Amino acid sequence: RESAEAAAAARGCRFHLFSPSGDEVYDPLAHGSVDERSERLIAVEEWGSGDADFYRQAASPFLRLVIRTLDRSASSATLPRVARYCDPDELENLAAGSEDEESASEVVAMVRGLRSDQKRAIAGLGARLENMATSGFARDWLDPEREPGLLFDLREAIARREIAYFRFDTDRTGNVGRAIAQMVLLDLGASASAMMGQGAGTFVAIDEFGALEASALDRLYARGRAAGFSVAVGTQTLADFRAAGPAVRERIGATVSSLICHRIGTQADADWVAELI
Question: Among residues 145, 158, 186, which one has the least CA distance to residue 40?
């Protein structure tokens, strides 16, 4: 962090620090389409059962409706608000007070047509988002209403070539820290997609990847190149990539251009590295 801050001072650009003790506020839902923002929220959760894909699919349409309804209202779709309105009754009350008749009709039609299994999936998602939004870590720097004057815009910072440092402390913040890291990586990937062909020359460094195990890393590698993103990731073992998802290591291997190996723990990992070389 000190090196990054010194680099910012040497270049005469702003340095942004995000950590459990930082001052700035970051809104991971500030940019993107309804689909992109809902995916950011869906992807951060481990659903933890054989029916996980079914429950994700069952909850996703309602989550998109929540974001659309908030977009049409006077309130922006921040994490705390999405968590609150990821409840059919709350969302119906919000729509009832809206002057947008089309939005209100859409909400009523979906809420009254929900099946019992969809309600369970939505309740599970709402509980997960509420748990994240009310955690001390997220409440301090993921709520734009807390300190509007200190709100950080990731895409603007990239365009201005500023330096941002995110510290997640997952040893202390646990699943909440990992979930927020996943959201940041997804936001970076969406930023890369929005900047395709512009070649901003953005460098992304991710250290101790094993503490994050974020599957969104492979998207950043896949999308970043055409947007001028260079991604460097450090980890203790290649098993950390496997733990992030079955395809993460293979997708990174298909795009990576340089490897620095200090230790290879297993014959299988050594074979994989040798094939890349």
Answer: 186
Tokens of 43: 């992807």
pTM (2 decimals)? 0.82
CA dihedral sign of residues 273, 4, 29, 126: positive
Q: In terms of DSSP H, where are the helices of the chain?
A: 2-11, 34-43, 52-72, 79-85, 88-96, 101-112, 116-133, 136-141, 154-159, 170-194, 217-224, 239-244, 248-255, 267-276
For residue 232, list its beta bridge partners.
Answer: 205
Q: Which residues pair with 17 in a beta bridge?
A: 165
pLDDT, tens digit only, all 277 positions of the chain: 899 999 999 999 999 988 766 678 888 888 888 998 998 888 766 655 555 667 778 888 999 999 999 988 877 888 889 999 999 999 998 888 777 788 888 899 999 899 888 888 898 888 888 888 888 777 777 777 766 667 888 888 988 999 999 988 888 777 888 888 888 888 888 888 888 777 668 999 999 888 887 888 887 887 787 788 899 999 888 888 888 877 888 888 888 888 998 888 889 889 989 988 8
